[in-house]
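User: My advisor asked me to double-check a structure prediction for DUF465 domain-containing protein before group meeting. I don't want to rely on an old file, so could you generate it fresh from this sequence?
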Amino acid sequence: MYRDENLKELARKKFHHFATLERKHQELDDIIDKMEKKTYLTPAEELELEKMKKERLKLRDEMVMLIKKAQEASENEK
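Assistant: Sure, here is a fresh prediction for DUF465 domain-containing protein from the sequence you gave:
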């Protein structure tokens, strides 16, 4: 985990919008968690939940890509 945090910090420094992606991902994660704890979801809520899960995954994929780019750039600087 320590290494992962170092890579995230590196990505935050190299890509100014990385922190925004992290914040949006965490917000969605919190909302999704609350919705999944509900006993019952309306059909509209179920659709919204699926939409939010897809958006959260998209954000995660983008963050992973930026972490990889930051890591590669760091390795090339050595």
